[in-house]
Design brief:
FAD/NAD(P)-binding domain, globular, 2 domains, flavin adenine dinucleotide binding, D-Amino Acid Oxidase, Chain A, domain 2, single chain, alpha+beta, FAD, 20 strands, binds flavin-adenine dinucleotide, oxidoreductase, FAD-dep_OxRdtase, FAD/NAD-bd_sf
């Protein structure tokens, strides 16, 4: 995967998860000289972009995000075509529960012209007897499941096709500013003692960001304006379709259920667990860790018990004994907005809060626009200290 080792690059992107892979692809496709650095391998198993299953959906209470999904989908379609791979498998989605506000979501989808239906709980139970719906239900058939890891690899491959260099096993340790003028660049030092000079630097380090921030030459005002990042070690569990039932991946939609005491989501687990069941998780149910480096990769038994109990109560189509489980990192901001901002020639991209996968190619476009100065990004993605821009 690695090309000839360069000693400098106009743009260096750090981190090859969904965000970094998308940014490197977008920059390289525009003709820039790009090096993508990754401490492990693309879609690192201990990051946020590994595995085969993330929900792709249009339903958001805030129409800003619904419209962004529409924009992202055009880029996903182009990416799938260029990569020659199916990256999003259509399954449709159901949203329900006392605090999910299906009617409000339906209004947002109607405003954006997205096909949907609002069903009573009884109508939904007849259509999907495997789910014990407790409120009215929003159904939208355009939703599906993103194969995150295949998407990362596709974007990295396209970046390379456009001339980018990828260095794996290159762990950024610290960054030195070269000069003080607006056009000055950076010298990057790896944990193993290598160096690489960058004209422009994009940091898309997922859950490693909070600690890495300490070693970046960022103005103190910019740092002070950043939102607080909270890293959580999420846990997801795979449950088999009930034996003897007609349930299979082909007739299970993805779901988001906001009950009063717990928010859960589920989706066909795909390749991650042998296509044999649904992946179910409690949203933000995992323990907090200071930074990705502090994760244990161990599943919390209390969270497993909560999710098993949930499956027993609400998902009669599944065998409530998990047959596989995994952990993954959420990097949350208080508003659940992403952070895409720049100080001097250093751009920070942190698109997680558990919902960034569906925007990946658009995040790459936003980050490339900001890093090159080609266009602004929406103000809500910028830190409190950055001047507001109109987008
Ligand atoms: C369990 C789970 C479920 C999710 N479900 C959904 C969903 O249903 N729908 C949705 O839209 N989104 C979902 N998301 C969110 C989505 O997956 C994330 O927004 C996205 O993967 C974040 O990608 P990233 O590139 O920011 O981070 P990462 O994928 O973690 O990438 C960061 C990369 O940086 C590398 N790195 C870190 N430090 C360094 C360094 N010093 N030097 C070099 N490399 C470094 C890491 O090794 C890693 O590969 C989910 C996330 C999780 C964890």
């Amino acid at each position: 995967m690695a090309g000839a080792f360069p000693d400098s690059s106009d743009y260096v992107v750090v981190g090859a998860g969904l965000a970094g892979a998308a940014t490197a692809w977008q920059l390289a496709a525009r003709g820039h000289q790009v090096t993508l650095l990754e401490r492990d391998v693309p879609a690192a198993h201990d990051g946020s972009s590994h595995g085969s299953a993330r929900i792709f959906r249009y339903a958001y209470p805030d129409q800003f995000y619904t419209r962004a999904v529409l924009e992202a989908k055009e880029l996903w379609d182009g990416l799938a075509l260029e990569a020659g791979a199916e990256l999003i498998t259509p399954f449709g989605a159901v949203d329900y529960g006392p605090t999910r506000q299906p009617a409000l979501l339906a209004g947002v989808l109607a405003g954006a012209g997205i096909e949907h239906e609002l069903l009573t709980a009884e109508e939904a139970r007849q259509r999907w007897p495997q789910i014990a719906f407790d409120t009215e239900v929003l159904w939208h058939p355009g939703a599906g499941v993103i194969d995150a890891e295949t998407s990362v690899n596709a974007m990295v491959a396209l970046a390379v096709r456009h001339g980018a260099t990828v260095l794996t096993g290159w762990s950024l340790d610290r960054v030195e500013r070269l000069g003080s003028g607006a056009g000055s660049g950076y010298r990057l030092h790896s944990a193993a003692g290598e160096t690489l000079d960058a004209g422009n630097l994009v940091i898309s380090a997922g859950g490693w960001l909070p600690r890495l921030l300490e070693s970046l030459p960022l103005p103190s005002g910019f740092l002070a304006g950043l939102p607080e990042f909270t890293v959580r070690q999420e846990q997801a569990f795979h449950f088999r379709y009930r034996e003897g039932s007609s349930f299979s991946a082909t007739n299970w939609p993805t779901f988001i259920h906001k009950a009063a005491d717990m928010q859960t989501y589920g989706l066909p687990g795909g390749r991650d667990a042998g296509f044999a069941g649904q992946k179910v998780a409690e949203y933000n149910g995992g323990p907090r860790v200071p930074s990705a480096a502090d994760q244990t990769g161990l599943v919390d038994p209390a969270n497993r018990a909560r999710v098993v109990d949930y499956v027993r109560r609400y998902l009669p189509g599944l065998d409530p004994e998990p047959y596989a489980e995994t952990t993954c990192l959420f990097t949350n901001t208080p508003t659940e907005d992403f952070l895409i901002d720049r100080a001097d020639n250093l751009t920070i991209v942190s698109p997680c809060s558990g919902h960034g996968a569906k925007f990946a190619p658009l995040i790459g476009q936003w980050a490339a626009d900001l890093a090159t100065g080609a266009a602004a990004v929406p103000d809500r993605f910028r830190s409190a200290s950055s001047p507001a821009l109109t987008t």
